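Holo model, S-adenosyl-L-homocysteine. Inputs:
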Amino acid sequence: MDLQRVSEVLAGEPAYRTRQVWEWTARGATSYEEMTNVSAETRVALTEQVPFSTLELMHEAVSSDGTIKALFHTHEGHPLEAVLMRFRDGRRSVCVSSQSGCPLTCTFCATGQMQFRRNLTEWEILDQALHFRRKEPIDHVVFMGMGEPMLNFDSVIAAARRLPDVGVTPRRTTISTVGWLPGLTRFVDEVTEPIRLALSLHAPADALRSEIMPVNDRFPLEAVLAECVRYYELYRRQVFVEYVMLDGINDSLAHARELAALLDRQIFKLNLIPYNPTGMYDGSSRERIQDFKDALHRAGFSPTVRLTRGRDIAAACGQLAATA
Ligand code: SAH
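Output:
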């Protein structure tokens, strides 16, 4: 819902009116009609003038593990996807997109292969979470869908700051980045809420990282990691490191040792990600991932291995690539 437009339509009314509309929406209302503390006349005006969602749902797929992937279009028809993950312990986590497509070209990620359209607005980001909130309460949001959040800093942070109204606290909000420095630096300087930071690392040294993530040529590891260390020192919050396991590329024991030497284990929390097929690589075997994990363990880290969700509906990490 474009609250800016709502407040324009409500210009003649008391200022708290927009707030009331937002509160209903954030709590999962499905139409203006439900907003019983708003006059019938105003509800009609809103219904006529401001679409309830900025996004149009085009398709929804449900995985055998309960994961739901939604494909939306913006008003101009740009595609984007969002995913609801349901975990056995009751957690409900929504993975949102920050852009339609992505201008970066990480070789293992399907989104990089589609056309980049544009940054999403604050409202388009929130409407993805609200879509699922209308089905059931949600408690986590990860900015790990399509796009690079730090390239769309203002809208991403504005949306994240409204998520508590939707039931998602800053501590349960995670922004993932390739290490796009201008945005990352602003994040460290400006965002004092305890929003979690995740870094897509995927390689322990510049040469390999540049090969699989061309953005590394622009913002090399040393500078990116220094910014993560600054985040830790300012806020004493660990940085999550995502490391996708690519068979024969970045998954040897030598890579594990290099990784352990590169990162401070107080500051960085490692999350190994089984590769979801996008056609480019083979994923490391389970045994290899276990060996890699054990090597990190011996070096004093406590890495986790990410649960893969929604693979059968191409909703897992790196698989979001809607066709326009
Ligand atoms: N652009 C941001 C936000 C997207 S997060 C970022 O890269 O951090 C999506 C996560 O999924 C990233 O960690 C990304 O590296 C990872 N990923 C991409 N392709 C993948 C694949 N095929 N299998 C597993 N993880 C993948």
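Residues 1-52 form one domain. The chain has two domains: 1-52, 53-313.
Archived with the compound record.
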